[in-house]
Write a structure and sequence with these properties.
alpha+beta; 6-stranded mixed beta sheet; two-stranded antiparallel ribbon; 12 helices; 8 strands
């Protein structure tokens, strides 16, 4: 085996109509994140109002009960929190197979098997811009322009629902466009096998497995990947471990990703401050509270004070406010005026938030 026998694979719901897979930092990206201090304070309020269900402690030992309970509470909480965003200047791929869902290993909430699209390309065209080479977590810096060998797999119903303009854009690409029904994992395996170049594998998130479930060819694949990694000076670390490393002395290309974690917080803080300032204005909060906002974005006690004021405002009025705020952000994105995470990090935005 050699580098030409290794495919990069990305399961996604974002179809690259222009033939370019972009990192989050280059897109006007919106998401919900339930892990912040404000979100925790809102969650506590929802518990008090019994909007979220109480945990049934008599069922905690039932299979999947707790995971299902946490998921249900999380989905309810997301109805009451604002959009935020994230930062990642790399695009993450798996190698010679689809990345497993987090729940296959009993942790996390990333799900790839239900995506409506997958991108497959040869590593050889992108290895020079790779930062790490890991079967489940290969990071490639910046925009990834697909080669003529690339395949874009699209779920058939999703393709049929595309506009004529979108179908024309795909038709103008030099890559192969293929449709699939049923399992995305099976479709990816089939394409890899039919290529005659790649050996599809079942991937594994466990560090001890080296990224592949044991098979007749898994050791050969791991040896090949290790050789490529050494040849091109790439990291063996998974993305999260890579960006949270405190000492990059022994990490190849560390300078390219050393600010990722800090930048993610800058982006989240921007959206938190933007939302909370609008909210504080809407509820006629005291000027003193507004002036304290910027330095208290991650302060639990401060966020609990805001929620105490919201209790006077009322949960229904608050929810309407959140829904309208989120809708406004979606409109900004549609109109092309929502800043990208990279613009936020570089302060290339109109920011009049600080009091």
């Amino acid at each position: 085996m050699n580098i030409e026998n290794i495919a990069i694979v990305r399961a996604t719901n974002i179809i690259p109509f222009d033939g370019v897979v972009k990192p989050l930092s280059n897109e006007p990206y919106l998401c919900k994140n339930i892990s912040g201090e404000f979100e925790a304070a809102i969650s506590k309020w929802l518990d008090e109002l019994k909007i979220t269900p109480e945990q049934d402690y008599s069922r905690v030992f039932e299979d999947d009960y707790y995971d299902s309970y946490v998921h249900k509470c999380g989905q309810i909480l997301k109805e009451y929190i604002p959009y935020t965003s994230d930062y990642n200047s790399t695009v993450l791929f798996s190698l010679n197979g689809i990345c497993p869902d987090d729940n296959e290993n009993g942790f996390g909430n990333n799900t790839f098997s239900n995506k409506k699209c997958a991108v497959i390309d040869s590593l050889v065209y992108h290895v020079e811009r790779a930062v790490s080479l890991v079967p489940t977590d290969t990071a490639i810096k910046g925009n990834v322009e697909l080669s003529e060998e690339a395949i874009i797999l699209i779920e058939e119903e999703t393709f049929n629902n595309l506009t004529d303009e979108q179908k024309i854009m795909l038709g103008n690409l030099k890559v192969k466009i293929k449709l699939f029904r049923g399992s995305l994992k099976d479709a990816i395996k089939s394409e890899l096998k039919e290529s005659g170049k790649y050996i599809p594998e079942d991937l594994d998130l466990s560090n001890s497995s080296g990224g592949f479930q044991e098979s007749e060819t898994s050791e050969m694949q791991k040896e090949c990947i290790n050789n490529i990694r050494n040849t091109f000076g790439l990291s063996h670390l998974k993305y999260y471990n890579l960006i949270t490393s405190r000492d990059g002395t022994d990490i190849p290309k560390y300078d390219e990703i050393k600010d990722e974690f800090t930048n993610a917080y800058k982006v989240r803080d921007y959206y938190a401050e933007r939302f909370l300032m609008e909210l504080l204005n809407a509820i006629n909060a005291p000027e003193e509270i507004k002036q304290q906002l910027h330095r208290n974005l991650n302060n639990r006690i401060y966020m609990e004070k805001i929620v105490e004021m919201l209790k006077v405002f009322g949960i229904e009025k608050y929810k309407i406010f959140v829904e309208q705020y989120n809708k406004n952000l979606e409109i900004e994105r549609e109109n092309g005026i929502l800043p990208t995470p990279e613009q936020i990090v570089n302060n290339n935005i109109n920011n009049n938030l600080h009091m």
